[in-house]
Amino acid sequence: MMILITGGSKCGKSSFAEKLLQNISENKYYLATMKPFGEDAHQAITRHQEMRRNKNFITIEQYTDIDKINLPEHSAVLLECMGNLCANEMFQEDKIFYPVEKIIKNLNFLHAMTDMLVIVTNEVGMDGISYSAETMQYISAMAELNQKTAQIADTVIECVCGIPLVIKGEIPC
Amino acid sequence: MILVIGGTCAGKTEFVKKYFRLSDADILDASETENFQNAKCIRNYHILIQKLCKENADPLAFTERLIQENPDCIVITNEIGCGIIPLEKSERFWREACGKSSCLLAERAEKVIRIICGIPAVIKGECLWS
Fold first, then answer.
1. Which residues of B touch A156 (CB under 8 A)?
2. Which residue in A126, A141, A142, B37 has the fewest CB atoms around it within 10 Å?
């Protein structure tokens, strides 16, 4: 089962994603894609670590190439988040790579390997601002990733003020 | 009138082409403010509004005219208002004009469809599949 959770920033996506997995106690993995660079990143990581405390998550940090992680059979994975993964795959050593196909391939791989894959993504293209060319490329890559992931996901949820709106499929009981 | 709204590159035009069986030739891009009376579909309406703002034309009056003169049109626009309000006055004016135009279009439209992650949600009017 694959579930995609989208929404603006700080709209309760992570809390809801964790709630989806709350009844799973074994082989539950938190796939962290944020590179711990800078004060903001450290704060976000600490905040999310606090949220996950005592919830039986095993944390794996993997910033790119998420198909390289080792998982046992019948595991559940919470990938957080697509925005970081996309940026990490895209901007490497002063070069820009087109990340969409690789990430979708890797998500398919993870999907086949797990019983439950929950992916947290982000809506970044609704502010009408013309950013630099690189950032516009990132915004369009994220939009394409979100569309393609939504196509392969069983369920797609948009979080608004912490309220989950189902836009595809249904929330598993 | 049908309004289709969503974030940039969210799959709005692809959806409209597929669902309403339109070809590229049926879709007028916002670079033109002419010929809008006959267009089956206008895309990038937010860019058209931006153009009108720059020309000191009245975007709401234009939208009103569009509704009067092409009442069966499918209008595709980007959601541009979900960010910090910009410091630059012209940017604020553009967002306001877009927001108000979208409200006006939505009010008169029989159907409003919001696209997110390529998935349509009907937020006004009858469900798509009924």
1. 117, 119
2. B37
Q: Which of A4, A128, A129 sits opposite B117 (nearest CB)?
A: A4
Q: Is residue B129 part of a domain?
A: no
Q: Is B54 within a domain?
A: yes
Q: Walk me through the domains of chain A, giving residue ranges and CATH numbers.
A: 2-168 (3.40.50.300)
**pLDDT one-digit tens code per residue, B70-81:** 999 999 999 999
pLDDT digits (tens, 9 = 90+) for A82-117: 999 999 999 999 999 999 999 999 999 999 999 999
Consecutive H or E run containing B22: none
> Domain limits at B69?
2-124
ipTM of this predicted structure: 0.79
Is the residue at B86 inside a domain? Answer: yes
Rounded to whole angstroms, how far apart are CA atoms B40 and A43? 50
Of A6, A8, A140, the CB nearest to B117: A6
Q: What is the CATH number of the domain that holds B69?
A: 3.40.50.300
Query: Which chain B residues touch A if contact means CB-CB below 8 Å?
Result: 7-11, 46, 78-84, 86, 91, 94-95, 98, 116-119, 121
Q: What is the DSSP string of A14-37?
A: HHHHHHHTTT--SSEEEEE-----
Q: Whole-angstrom Cα distance, residue B109 to residue B13?
A: 18
Residues in chain B: 130
In a domain, B31, yes or no: yes
User: B83 and A127 in contact by Cβ < 8 A?
Assistant: yes
Provide the terminal-to-terminal Cα distance of chain A, rounded to the nearest Å. Answer: 12
Is the Cβ pair A167, B86 closer than 8 Å? no
Residue at token pair 């391939």:
A105
Whether residue B119 and residue A125 make contact (CB cut-off 8 A), yes or no, is no
